[in-house]
Structure formats: structure tokens, C-alpha cells
Design brief:
The complex is a heterodimer of chains A (95) and B (494).
Chain A (H helix, E strand, L loop, with lengths): L4 H10 L6 H18 L34 H5 L5 E2 L2 E2 L7
Antiparallel strand pairs in A: 1-2
Chain B lengths: L8 H9 L5 H14 L6 E4 L1 H17 L9 E5 L26 H8 L3 E6 L38 H8 L5 E6 L5 H7 L2 E4 L19 E6 L2 H11 L29 E5 L9 H16 L3 E5 L7 H16 L17 H12 L2 H14 L4 H22 L5 E5 L15 H5 L6 H6 L3 E8 L5 E7 L5 H15 L14
Helix pairs in contact in B: 2-3, 5-6, 9-11, 9-12
The chains are: A mainly alpha (95), B alpha/beta (494).
Chain lengths: 95, 494
């Protein structure tokens, strides 16, 4: 399958990355090449094979559901591009 | 006095213990080497002042006879490990200026054991690349050069700064991370040793995520023994990483020098792929002979799904990357580029913050995970991944370790292989299968190409059988007796 400019625009929107029209053209070609390589996987017979999630053959660990950390708002906010009164600041989302 | 920057970690620890020199002298010698080799661009952030302070503390411990296992050893820390209060960028503009309020488990354990970080080593942006060419802070230059050719070569990637620093005698060892070959391929390109442990052996906590089902930290050194000493410090169970495996950490260095008599070494026929450099194939044959001469038994094995590993990787790694990198939204840390509204701010931030390769992988990952394609691409890749894993399990019924080349070519010049992303991806053709299966893999230098560049071979082991890898690697190391130095260092050795 080939990826056209319009599809690049659609997935760029899903990925929340602004892409210029010129870049869409280039990306369409590059992504098509990658996809062509990926599609070689269709030749593999995988009937009855379970998709693999983890190579580690183990049960996930469980722990008690309790608070073990916290009370460090200044640390959490230290790298924020914008903060005020202990909150992250974002552009207005509700008019 | 001995040239301190040319010592192995083992020799340096002995020298420090015997008070032949101090940690301060050792660290100062490496800082001087780093300053002289700034042109290689190994570090994104230097932490020399902190290193000098830590060296003083190490000297006090040596004086009191309370030295730690790696006390005073100067290392390079890949800038993918979060280090408390020290800028951590993943070589991306989107994280420029980010100072983590916490420490990664691996870097914390190394600090606990007395290792001294000289700086945060350069890498491909978010560890995505095979040449270090995607770093937002400029590429790293390999200290090796082709004979009679002055062009700068790449150190490999993604852990290029780490590998170049160890090869250039700037650091005695380094940390790396390996998702599809990011420790092993740069180790091969720079003529040093590196090991990607079994998935789950070293904690991923505080390691900036690329593809979480594949990412695994590991060490670089100039000998197998040095890697063993570093891995001992880096490895271990961590409740903060849900895929960390709770198994005791053995004394890896005890495996060095053990006999490989009777060890079954598998040679997978599928790794004889077309397009591989002939010198590398010849070196592989030589490596087989070396292990045979050391008493190992050679077994021909087959890993039939090898030729699909690269394709599988380029579905799974981008899929996980697109999900992991969704957190860079310009709200909580890193770069923010304002827009007309929140979505516009996200889109501007991510457009300016991510480089071309990272953007490509996020887009491919988003595509293969999108509705309608999820089963055809992502699930099919996960099924093939299972078959690749099964190949290894089947092969290990006949052998203990596998011997293969590490990379299909020696280091290439900066700017070569850029015509098409897929050409660059082929660099990892021999390292990706073990990554997909979570198996430990190690690269060590075994010879030089005709034009004077180091060539590496890869040993792949069974899950959590790093000790067997170290045993085999030390036998191969002894037979290969690789003592060549990068041309830029010739005449400077003691």
C-alpha cells in the first residue's frame, strides 16, 4: 500500500505534529518505502500464532495500592514551561 | 607515570587500591583527554566539576580502606538516563534544558558503587538512529579513520557518544541503551566491547523510553571484563520497572578466563546475507576457528525467521515510540511553542521539537496502530516476533551461544547512507533479531578491515545467561588479541 499526501496529513494530525505541505510530499515517499518493507511480513504464515506482548515470561508484580510518594509540587513543576500558583498553565480550552 | 587513560577498569581499580595513583589523578587525566577531544562531540553536557568533587570523596574512601566496587572510575553516561539536577536531553530539542527531579535506577546504582560520571554522552535523538547523525546537538565523530582517508566517520548509534568516548580514552567505560543494536553496533564501529543484557536484567526506570518492550540498558568497556564489572553494578531487580526480573545478579567477572571447552557455539546460516562486507564474513569464519581452537564445539543452526526481523522491528519499535513520545506535549516539561489553541500548541511544539527521524517513526507508528491497520500491521508483526523468539528457543536446544557478525559493514563516513531511511535501517540487520527475542547480545572487536577500521563479532546468549556470554567473549578476546588503537590516539599510549 502506498501512503499519499492526504494520509500523511491525517496521521500527522493524529500524532499532533504540524507538517508543511512540502514535507508531506517527501514523507509520503519515505513512509511508502518503509511500509513496502514492512509488508514483506504478509508473506509469513502466522496462523494460530498468538501476538507476542512481552519476551519476559513472568507474571507482573503486584504491590499494595497505597500512596508512597508525594508532597513535592515544586519538584513536579520545576520543568514546566509555564506554571502559576502550583498549577501547569495551558492555553484556554473552553470558551 | 602510567598513561592513566589507557588503563582498563580492572587495572585502574588495582592501581587505586595500591595507591599507585589517586582517583583525582585518574579523573583529571580523563577530563584533560575529554577537553583535548572536544572535536569528537562526545558529550552534550559535561559534568567535570562534579566529577572532581566525587573524585575527592573517592580518595577519602580509599584512604580509609572503605572503597566502593567502582570507586573513582570515570564513565560516560548516555544522555538518555535521567540524572537528578543535571540536564537530560535524549539529544532532542524538545527536552533541551530539562533537569530531572529524580535519578534513573541504573545511574543511581553506578553512583552508589563509586563510578564518576564525566558527562552526558551524545546519542541519536531519542536513541533512534544508527550513526548518531540524528542528534539535535550535532553528530559524534568516530576516533577511528580509514587508512589514507581523512574523512570523519560515524561512531554508530544510537549510543555513539558513549562508544566514541570509551574508544578515544576519554572515559574508562560508559552506559548505553540498546533497542535494536544501539550498544552493539557502535561498539563494533568504535573497536570496543559492549553488551546488551537480557531484557529485564537492568531497570528501565528513569531511562527515557523509546520502545519499551525492547529498550535495555547495558555497558561499554574496552574489555569483556570491564563490561562485566560495570554490568554487575547496573543490573538488578527494581520494583519501579514492571518488566524488571527478580533474579540474583551473579559476579559476572568470575566468568572471565573460564574454559570454553565443550561449549556449544551455534553458527546461524541465515546471517550469511547478501551485501555483507566480505571482510566481515571472513572475520566471522576466523572467529569460529578461534572458538574451536579454544575447545568449543561448533554447531550449524538455523533461525529461519531472521530475514523478517528488520520488518518486524520497524512496526513494533515505531508503534511503541509513537505511544511513548505522546508525553511531549509542551505542558509539563521541555519545549513549548505557543499556538492559537491547545491543539495548535501541541502541534507546533512537536513540529519544532522533534527531528526528522523521530517524526518519521512517530508517523509510521501512528499509522500501523490506527484503526483498520492495527491487525494487519501491528498484530502481524507481534505474531512474527513470536516466531523469531521461537527460532532462538529452538536453536538453544542445540547450542549454548550463537556467533554472528555485529554489523554488515565497518563505520561509514558522516553523510553516507543518508539517501534513504531504509538503507540506514539495514545497519541493524544482525542485532535486531536478538532484540526482538529479548536475548542478551555482546559485541567485541576481533580484527581490522583492510582500510584499518575495527570489525566486531556478536555473541548471542540464552536468557539470563550473561555469564556464558562473558566466558565465550573472554576466550574470543584472548584469541583475537585486539590491541589496535584509533589513529587519532596512536603514539599517545604509554
Amino acid at each position: 500500500m502506498s501512503i499519499d499526501k492526504e494520509t500523511v496529513g491525517k496521521i500527522a494530525r493524529l500524532a499532533r505534529i504540524k507538517v508543511t505541505e512540502d514535507d508531506k510530499e517527501v514523507l509520503a515517499g519515505e513512509l511508502t518505502n518503509i511500509l513496502t518493507m514492512i509488508e514483506e511480513l504478509n508473506a509469513v504464515d502466522t496462523k494460530g500464532v498468538e501476538p507476542m506482548t512481552s519476551v519476559v515470561q513472568m507474571q507482573l508484580h503486584e504491590r499494595a495500592d497505597e500512596v508512597t510518594d508525594g508532597g513535592i509540587p515544586e519538584k513536579i513543576l520545576k520543568n514546566a514551561p509555564e506554571e502559576t500558583a502550583g498549577f501547569f498553565v495551558v492555553p484556554k480550552v473552553v470558551e | 607515570m602510567t598513561n592513566l587513560t589507557h588503563l582498563t577498569i580492572r587495572a585502574a581499580l588495582d592501581g587505586l587500591e595500591k595507591k599507585d595513583f589517586t582517583a583525582t589523578e585518574l579523573v583529571d587525566a580523563h577530563i584533560a583527554a575529554a577537553e583535548a577531544a572536544r572535536g569528537l562531540n562526545c558529550f552534550i553536557t559535561e559534568t567535570f566539576d562534579a566529577a572532581r568533587e566525587q573524585a575527592k570523596a573517592a580518595d577519602e574512601r580509599y584512604a580509609k580502606g572503605e572503597a566502593l566496587p567502582l570507586d573513582g572510575i570515570p564513565v560516560a553516561m548516555k544522555d538518555l538516563f535521567c540524572t537528578e539536577g543535571v540536564q537530560t536531553t535524549a539529544a532532542s530539542k524538545i527536552l533541551e534544558g530539562f533537569k530531572p527531579p529524580y535519578e534513573s535506577t541504573v545511574s543511581g546504582q553506578m553512583k552508589r558503587d563509586g563510578a564518576i560520571t564525566l558527562g552526558k554522552a551524545n546519542l541519536d535523538e531519542f536513541a533512534m538512529g544508527s550513526s548518531n547523525g540524528t542528534s539535535a546537538f550535532g553528530g559524534v565523530v568516530n576516533p577511528w579513520k580509514r587508512k589514507g582517508d581523512n574523512r570523519d566517520l560515524v561512531p554508530g548509534g544510537s549510543s555513539g557518544g558513549s562508544a566514541a568516548a570509551v574508544a578515544a580514552r576519554i572515559a574508562m567505560g560508559a552506559t548505553g541503551t540498546d533497542t535494536g543494536g544501539s550498544i552493539r553496533q557502535p561498539a563494533a564501529f568504535c573497536g570496543i566491547t559492549g553488551i546488551k543484557p537480557t531484557y529485564g536484567r537492568c531497570s528501565r526506570f528513569g531511562v527515557i523510553a523509546f520502545a519499551s518492550s525492547l529498550d535495555q540498558p547495558g555497558p561499554f568497556g574496552r574489555t569483556a571484563e570491564d563490561c562485566a564489572l560495570l554490568l554487575k553494578s547496573m543490573a538488578g531487580y527494581d520494583a519501579k520497572d514492571s518488566t524488571s526480573v527478580n533474579a540474583p545478579v551473579p559476579d559476572y567477572a568470575a566468568s572471565i578466563g573460564q574454559s570454553v571447552k565443550g561449549l556449544k557455539v551455534g553458527v546461524p546460516k541465515e546471517y550469511r546475507v547478501e551485501g555483507t562486507n566480505e571482510e566481515i564474513i571472513a572475520l566471522w569464519d576466523k572467529g569460529v576457528e578461534m572458538l574451536k581452537d579454544a575447545g568449543a564445539e561448533i554447531v550449524d543452526v538455523s533461525l529461519p525467521h531472521t530475514k523478517y526481523a528488520l520488518q518486524t522491528y520497524y512496526v513494533i519499535a515505531p508503534a511503541e515510540c509513537s505511544s511513548n513520545l505522546a508525553r511531549y506535549d509542551g505542558v509539563r516539561f521541555g519545549l513549548r511553542v505557543e499556538g492559537d489553541n491547545l491543539i495548535d500548541t501541541y502541534e507546533n511544539t512537536r513540529a519544532q521539537g522533534f527531528g526528522a527521524e523521530v517524526r518519521r517513526r512517530i508517523l509510521i507508528g501512528t499509522y500501523v496502530l490506527s484503526a483498520g491497520y492495527y491487525d494487519a500491521y501491528y498484530n502481524q508483526a507481534r505474531r512474527v516476533r513470536k516466531l523469531i523468539w521461537q527460532d532462538f528457543i529452538d536453536a538453544y536446544k542445540q547450542c549454548d551461544v550463537l556467533l554472528t557478525p555485529t554489523a554488515p559493514t565497518p563505520a561509514f563516513a558522516i553523510g553516507e547512507n543518508l539517501q534513504d531511511p531504509v538503507t540506514m535501517y539495514l545497519n541493524d540487520i544482525f542485532t535486531i533479531p536478538a532484540s526482538m527475542a529479548g536475548m542478551p547480545g555482546m559485541s567485541l572487536p576481533v580484527g581490522l578491515s583492510a582500510d584499518g577500521l575495527p570489525l566486531g563479532l556478536q555473541l548471542i546468549g540464552q536468557p539470563f545467561a550473561e555469564e556464558t556470554l562473558f566466558k565465550a567473549a573472554s576466550a574470543l578476546e584472548k584469541a583475537a588479541n585486539f590491541t589496535d588503537l584509533p589513529q587519532t590516539l596512536m603514539g599517545k599510549a604509554a
